[in-house]
């Protein structure tokens, strides 16, 4: 299990916090632990990153829902079973934080602080980011129970092989931008409530790249990327559910002229089982007994994920009874145990009878054994009432 602190605790907010409350709490933490206010303080830097990770998850509606349901396992690498290559909000670098959240400081921060670039920059230079790819993966119940490895073919942007992703012919047909002297940014100093603050913005001439292509690569027309099909292996952890989204860092589209590749987002689609019904981590099977079997008892076969098993039916089994096969359900995605298989019993009453069969039933109708006692009637009523509670 993860040893990470609770994201709500990190930001100091309640689980019911609104988006605006989350934003205010994150801004307060970020200013408190900002590297400019704590130069050389590694502990403050880690708290700065920790707050950014918490806000990245909680400010995203889908990620927040998965976190509330599954904890860190629902949004981080723990969801992959410890080796599937999935990543969630973790693994932030200072560049990532300034790139994603630089605007949240209202212009007071965002670039040129302690050597960290902001507004999608690295070391002052603009860093392109590739777009994410989203795919859907279908899983049957057995794959959900055990986890699965899937190979998918996607068409995506990849770094141009002719110019190594630079966009310049031969990988070197460019010159240093004279406007920003290769920094990729123009700098200005403003007075704020926190004192004199230095902010940066992307150079308008080189779009923050610090260099200007003098001769474009003919293979990619100066973009630094081309389209190509790629086969990607996806490791799906056990216990995932319909609609759950996992991500593989850096497996999305490549960025233009270098930079940070996007992510591959995997949306789980669960195929319906012909006999079993999923109820969170439990499985449900509706067993229809014949009248003689319910009365006399016997042995019946029922389906499980691992194959069919025999179950003993006690004589006099009543409709509405539930048999529980412990541990025959689905594992929890965050490793909190395994669900059960619940067998709901119904009894089939014949819809038509032959003359001889009718006479036999009519004779039995007078028998005291075929008359329900008040206690049995009450017990059956309670079972059905519980279905609606």
- Distinct helical segment count: 9
Report the portion of residues in β strands.
25-35%
Give the overall silhouette: elongated
Strand order of the largest sheet: 12-13-17-16
Quaternary structure of the protein? single chain
Radius of gyration of CA atoms, rounded to a whole number:
31 Å
Q: Which whole number gives the mean pLDDT?
A: 79
Span between N and C termini?
34 Å
Classification by helices and strands? alpha+beta
Q: H/E order of the elements? A: HHHHHEEEHEEEEEEEEEEHEEEEHH
Report the count of strand segments: 17
Summarize the structure.
The chain has helices at residues 7-11, 19-32, 42-58, 61-70, 94-101, 141-146, 291-296, 355-365, 374-386; strands spanning 121-122, 125-126, 133-139, 148-159, 174-176, 185-192, 195-202, 211-213, 225-236, 245-248, 264-270, 277-279, 282-290, 298-304, 307-313, 322-325, 341-348. The protein has 389 residues and is of the alpha+beta class. The longest helix is centred in the N-terminal third of the chain and has 17 residues, at 42-58.
List its traits.
389 residues; alpha+beta; four-stranded mixed sheet; 17 strands; elongated
Commentary on this structure:
This protein is α+β, with helices and mostly antiparallel strands. The protein is 23% helix and 27% strand. It is built from 9 helices and 17 strands. The chain has helices spanning 7-11, 19-32, 42-58, 61-70, 94-101, 141-146, 291-296, 355-365, 374-386; strands at 121-122, 125-126, 133-139, 148-159, 174-176, 185-192, 195-202, 211-213, 225-236, 245-248, 264-270, 277-279, 282-290, 298-304, 307-313, 322-325, 341-348. The strands form 7 sheets. Strands 12-13-17-16 form a 4-stranded mixed β-sheet. Strands 3-11-10 form a 3-stranded mixed β-sheet. Strands 1-2 form a two-stranded antiparallel ribbon. Helix 2 runs antiparallel to helix 3 (42-58). The chain is elongated, with a radius of gyration of 31 Å.
């Amino acid at each position: 299990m993860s040893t990470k602190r609770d994201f709500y605790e990190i930001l100091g907010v309640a689980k019911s916090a609104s988006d605006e409350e989350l934003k205010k709490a994150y801004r307060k933490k970020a200013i408190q632990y900002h590297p400019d206010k704590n130069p050389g303080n590694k502990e403050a830097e880690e708290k700065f990153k920790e707050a950014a990770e918490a806000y990245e998850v909680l400010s995203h509606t889908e990620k927040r829902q998965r976190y509330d349901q599954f904890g860190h396992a629902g949004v981080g690498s723990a969801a992959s079973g410890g080796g599937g290559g999935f990543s969630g909000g973790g693994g932030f670098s200072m560049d990532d934080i300034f790139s994603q959240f630089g605007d949240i400081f209202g212009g007071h921060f965002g670039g040129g602080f302690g050597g960290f670039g902001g507004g999608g920059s690295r070391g002052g230079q603009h860093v392109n980011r590739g777009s994410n790819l989203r795919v859907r993966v279908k899983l049957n119940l057995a794959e959900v129970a055990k986890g699965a490895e899937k190979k998918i073919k996607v068409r995506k942007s990849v770094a141009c092989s002719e110019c190594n992703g630079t966009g310049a012919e031969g990988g070197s047909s460019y010159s240093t931008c004279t406007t920003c002297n290769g920094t990729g940014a123009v700098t200005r100093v403003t007075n704020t409530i926190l004192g004199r603050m230095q902010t940066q913005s992307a150079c308008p001439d080189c779009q923050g790249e610090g260099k200007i292509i003098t001769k474009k690569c003919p293979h990619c027309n100066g973009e630094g990327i081309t389209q190509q099909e790629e086969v990607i292996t996806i490791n799906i952890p056990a216990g995932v559910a319909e609609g759950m989204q996992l991500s593989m860092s850096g497996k999305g589209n490549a960025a233009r002229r270098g930079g940070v590749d996007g992510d591959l987002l995997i949306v789980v689609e669960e195929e319906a089982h012909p006999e079993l019904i999923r109820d969170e981590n439990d499985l449900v099977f509706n067993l229809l007994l014949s009248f003689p079997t319910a009365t006399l008892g016997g042995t019946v076969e029922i389906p499980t994920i691992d194959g069919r098993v025999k179950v003993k039916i006690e004589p006099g089994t009543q409709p509405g009874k539930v048999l529980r096969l412990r541990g025959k359900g689905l594992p929890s995605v965050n490793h909190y145990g395994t669900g059960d298989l619940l067998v709901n019993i119904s009894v089939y009453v014949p819809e038509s009878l032959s003359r001889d069969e009718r006479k036999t039933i009519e004779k039995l109708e007078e028998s005291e054994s075929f008359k329900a006692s008040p206690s049995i009637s009450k017990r059956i009523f309670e079972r059905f009432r519980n279905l609606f509670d």
